[in-house]
Amino acid sequence: MSFVPKETIEVIAQSIGITNLSPDVALALAPDLEYRIREIMQESVKCMRHSMRTFLTTEDVDTALALRNLEPIYGSTSNDPPQFKRAAGHKDLFYIDDKDVDIKDIIEAPLPKAPLDTSITSHWLAIEGVQPAIPENAPVEAPSEIRKSEYKEDGLPVDVKLPVKHLITRELQLYYEKITDLTLNKPGSIPFRRALVSLATDSGLHPLVPYFTFFVADEVAQNLNNLAVLFALMRLVRSLLQNSQIHIELYLHQLMPPIITCIVAKRIGNRLSDDHWELRNFSANLVASICQRFGHIYHNLQPRVTKTFLHSFLDPTKALPQHYGAIKGIEALGSRLIRLLILPNLEPYLHLLEPEMQPEKQKNEMKRHEAWQVYGALLGAAGQCVHEKVKMFSNLFSPPTRVTSRGSGKAVIAMSGKRKASTDNLMQQQQQLPPMKKLATDGPGGVVAMNSMLVDMQGSTGGYSSMMGVSSMSMARQISIDNVPGREVGDQQRKLSSTLAQAWKDDIDTGNLVSSVVELFGESVLPFVVSNPEACMFL
User: Fold this and answer.
1) Full-model pTM
2) Into which family does the record put it (predicted)?
3) 10 Å Cβ neighbour count for 494?
4) Could you tell me where the beta strands, DSSP code E, fall in 65-220?
5) Residue 274 belongs to some domain of the structure
6) pLDDT digits (tens, 9 = 90+) for 186-206
């Protein structure tokens, strides 16, 4: 038995124009109508549950009809529940009380805006802490005094820049104002030192990084005559670089120009007593630390910095303090750049610098002081390169060794009991060596001829090539040939020969470097090789 009475079927039939529907047909259609209604309601409930809701809406019914390929219900929807009224004369018949609307009012009413499809768009809420003035963001009202000046007296419009809204807290604003005040007014005080420690350790300062970078760039450009402020600004930058909680690499394009300015600026400070040389050294080390830390992220960072230093160093129109800063910058970047950029130009530059250092030719005492500072920078750079080379080849000036063999198949080195005190003794020991030495092994074919490594030492001056040969032989201390078959012995021989040949070439390059630097600077370069007594004796 159906819950839908046959009278409902007859009313529906009359609403669509069927007036002669028999009672038997109405009674047969009632169960089918109930089945279809239950089916639609079940689909509607499923749509409700998939929408994570606990109440049913008309949208769920429309979705269920669409899933069944049925025409949806047209008309306006409302969140308010419909108001049903009981039909007069029928106890169980209800209808919705729709108000009568005049068609003239509907025609004269303005058309509503067309609804937009649901979509997702993105826009910048803030860029480096500043909210951009775009339609998607809330508009910022201009002050009344700015709005009054939107037009000139002649009626031409004037571009008005609305103030930007800074997305930082009041506490960070006070912190920023305190740091900048200490930097500009009390750069040598104890509170400023504590502020530097705070900048290097606090983890919540990233929103202030763009403000600090802009502050440094602006103040360096305005305070080139104030050495104390410039030094304080560079110390502030170093503290920011030491803070591992902030991402300062995003602002390197703003930080590098003021730092390089403190290195290669023509004039820093306004007093003769200002020690701007120390500021240039400090800033050069700062640039080197930046290149070492972020060079793998920005591959063109160090080449661009190096190009700037090289241009300042080779430009004869630049002042001597600029040359000094360029030399210190290249020196801080490492001995490899010194060897590639400074040493090839060292001799002609010293010829041009020498007249500026002599009182007879340069009467200006300040110019002579600057020239001596540049000379010291060149000496330090060349000495650093020599020191690295001598440290790399610590056996460069070691005494000769005798190669013997044991039955175990390993080459054994017999060291002399004590070091010789002169190069003559080294020459005598080298000449006493037999014309051919062999490394003997127990396996077949395990003989390596050593006379191929010997060179003609008669044409050398001062025993220089003799020491080079000694160094290459001393490199063989770390090489041993095990008891292996013939093919492996051949490979081992080739490896041994290539290793000794490369060691010989490196030793020759190192010797040439040392000798050329000694010729230019004399005994001033000795402190850079004090760790090797034989080197000092040779020089």
Assistant:
1) 0.52
2) Belongs to the TAF6 family.
3) 10
4) 84-86, 94-96, 130-131, 165-166
5) yes
6) 888 999 999 999 999 988 888
